[in-house]
């Protein structure tokens, strides 16, 4: 490639953010429009990836490599495969939508807010592109800072507690990962190259240690049970855009980390820790689902539902067969779309009522029928109704885990019942029943808000009715990944080998 | 002007539809590609009609002895075009849903036109499909690949065979009549357009369910009808009870689907496919297989059958998942007729019938179905004896009649089950719509205590309701008689262990059915009016748009059974012969003498039921009150529906909520985990506060520390 597309994608938002610095902070409208245009251009820049990507290979594409710190063999090395490409596109979309939803809700320090969002976008895309462990770590930590500020400055009343908690939680995990990275460097022939590290075989003892070091960083980010308690606080206190990016992209980083690092570099440990990871995921699914039933705060409920849904994702990844892994990756996208959309909706209604207490609502379907229709659709996608994207992901994960061990699917499928229970209960308390005085005469969604939600609706149906559009990107990469984990192609538990004939 | 745009949009919609329909209907003569690739069978007919013998795979001769004919399943083709009218059949209602949902509000009281026209077109298409299949047309063709991952490949595709077309006729005809009826019934309601758009959505979902050629599409339709049902039950969403009922229906169905989806996984793992053809034509190969779970080993065919049955139980409201159906009566009455009587709730029977090659493999599962059917049948009928809400009586009657269909499937008489499904659709929809007409006349009063003597005010409703009641009671010659008799005969004839038991319960319930149906009938239409004067003044027959569907359904309730007149009454049982290629037909071992005795028994049971109702509610109307006092324990038990709802709420729902609040949230999450999480920084903070005290700014303290430390180092160095 003559054009360094990935570098452009990483640094264009950064340059955009810098250009915002030049604008006078009082020119609020200019700043908003500029931020929106920058994010839209970024989205347009990301689109060529979709069309130019070669689905027939698992090899990294759009690669760029430059020596950075030769003394330590650190390279500026980028590239994407069939897994990361989807997340780059999703990041670009989610950022655009979060800028749209912050249009009126952010009123103080507007310039600084949009700068933080754009910097965050650059760092997120950097994480998905990095093929050098050192570079990856830089982007990984760089993401923390804008998010820390977004929650800490523009958040709710208890924002300082929430943001410090978020920061410390993730930082402690990341530091353990850093130790792991340095150990890999020392033991793996002095290279930070992820692809080269994946080709080596490390002794099982070392693999297990590294597995837990990485686990600390990734499990916190996902978040897996029992290190999930930062998420409800962060979600509740974050401004809408923060929640959307958090749910849409940031917590996907953990699962992505498992996919990109733990599984290919530490295959033996991955196989050895398969059942413990599955058990943790199952606990997350059921625990997250049941605890949703006790929530009285709108955002906390969705946050805990994320714990349950992300349990499905990690379950899919660690059930280690083609359907479950593809389902897990798809579910990461789905969760980004659906939970992102739910947080967008919550932000919109919060702007009108300024309350997150579920009991303050009721009868919204009468006062805001258009909004009710959108929210219903997102609710249905969240409970995995066939025809929506949520179903495809959950179905593939459950099917894959059933192939691995039937009992896993038996436990995980209870998540479907719980999901329907807490989501429909939430929907009823918000939209049905008698109209609550506090929601009387609320204005219906305006055009900007509808435009913000429509892309999510389209994605939900598109993925739900034609998931092959996304799955076809993954096939080669997932097959390659499983070959790396199992060592040989034959070991993958395909159904054809299970059929009793 | 906004209105003009809408009119134009409406016109364009109708024109495109008509054009499409015309081309679709003209397409019948389309050419098939020369030879069906791969099979090597020369298809010599240019008519597009695929002969069933050549294009069906035979499901190997089943060992179960009572099975005569081997069943076939349509072999999938890859190069046939799906005729346009078959595409129109489900997708026109879908288009109508989107149109009405998006623009219906502006159309106001004209919002019903698009849904009604599209369902009428769908009905014509269904008729066309029926006659095509009757002439030998069979289709199994994929539209596109839905999901592909690893070696999983799931398609969206159509399977059109005898079973499908019967369901298509039931769904589209009842749906069309309910659409028309709703114009009168829902007149002036706030969400008029919303109601019609949901009806269209439901019709689409149900048609996709029956048209699918694989389990995933079945599951798609399965959950989509559940969604429509959720929306329509909760149509009056501002009423808490309606919103609760919708939610309950969805969640209870999800519990059934929990088993269903595991069944799908088990099928996939053992057959490597979810396409009907791949599964059914290889069904025999799983015999003797086993399935291990939690250290226990299960017989594979039994496990698959019972897991699928879970889904069927949920959807068709059988014990123990029946609790949602009576509550679903919160929805508008046309919905109860369409979804909760005639079509959606029969999806469970459709599932069992469609999967009969799988169910046939497990005698144990068949026994379970039979016993479950019999028990539910009796259970629901006893509750129906004492309820006073007219819609609830009919709802429990539905549960009971669905149980008859399950009984039929359990004894292997799938075609009898589908036959009852067919006749039941007409007389039960008629009963519900009749109730709706009464409710309209009574100004939304549903309690039978305040009715009575409506005969003279509502003659058409009266006569059609009478025909429906006679039909459900099994009066000879009417639809319900033939199908119920067929089921009871097949149950008695069956070699399944539970067959005779099912026959006995079935006959007993036939008596109870007649009794509660006529109890309701007499309480509504005979005796003195017990409502308010105000209500009495306004009593009048419903408008024609309501009564015409009643009359049309009454024709069905009388004559639908004539399709399957048994041989001993001079018929040829053409129903069973029509269905035989898909559903098989059990050997009838009974002599015609035994058959007539059984028939006499069921006629007698029904007749006694009617007579008893007459005696208790016409001759001696004071008797029911006396009896309910004398047997007050039983009466209260029945009135409270055996306290099953209370059991679930106190046994499952509340404990789960308490566990969630008290244990998970308070103790585990905010207690243990958060204390550890906050404990670490708190500990570090406390530690640093102690250390900080060292730096208190007092030079003398610093000197003391310096001196002490220096001393310590010296000592340490010299003693080493």
Q: How would you characterize the overall build of this protein?
A:
- The complex is a heterodimer of chains A (501) and B (720).
- Chain A is mainly alpha-helical and 501 residues long.
- Chain A has one domain.
- Chain A has 22 helices and 2 strands.
- Chain A has helices at residues 5-21, 28-52, 84-101, 110-129, 133-154, 159-187, 194-199, 204-221, 230-237, 240-250, 252-265, 267-272, 274-292, 298-318, 322-353, 364-367, 369-382, 389-404, 406-431, 447-465, 468-486, 495-498; strands spanning 61-69, 74-80.
- Chain A has a two-stranded antiparallel sheet with strand order 1-2.
- In chain A, helix 10 (240-250) packs antiparallel against helix 15 and helix 17 (369-382) packs antiparallel against helix 19.
- The radius of gyration of chain A is 22 Å and the shape is globular.
- Chain A starts with a helix and ends with a helix.
- The mean pLDDT of chain A is 90.
- With 720 residues, chain B is mainly alpha-helical.
- In chain B, 68% of the residues lie in helices and 5% in strands.
- In chain B, the strands form 3 sheets. Chain B has a two-stranded antiparallel ribbon with strand order 1-2.
- The longest helix of chain B has 49 residues, at 644-692.
- Chain B is globular.
- Chain B starts with a helix and ends with a helix.
- Classes of the chains: A mainly alpha (501), B mainly alpha (720).
- Chains A and B meet through helix 6, helix 13, helix 15, helix 18 and helix 19 of A and strand 3, helix 6, helix 7, strand 5 and helix 26 of B.
Distance between the termini of chain A: 50 Å
How is the biggest beta sheet of chain A arranged?
2 strands, antiparallel
How would you classify the helix and strand content of chain A by structural class? mainly alpha
Number of domains of chain A: 1
Query: What spatial form of chain B do the alpha-carbon principal axes imply?
Result: globular
Distance between the termini of chain B: 102 Å
Calculate the mean pLDDT score of chain A and round it: 90
If strands are numbered along the chain, what order do they take across the biggest sheet of chain A? Answer: 1-2
Helix and strand content put the structural class of chain B at mainly alpha
Q: Greatest chain-chain interface?
A: A-B, 66 and 60 residues
How much strand content do the residues of chain A show?
Answer: under 5%
Largest sheet of chain B: 2 strands, antiparallel
Beta strand count of chain A: 2
Enumerate how many helices of chain B there are, as a single number: 27
Radius of gyration of chain B: 31 Å
Describe the global form of chain A: globular
- β content of chain B, as a range? under 5%
* Overall pLDDT metric of chain B: 85
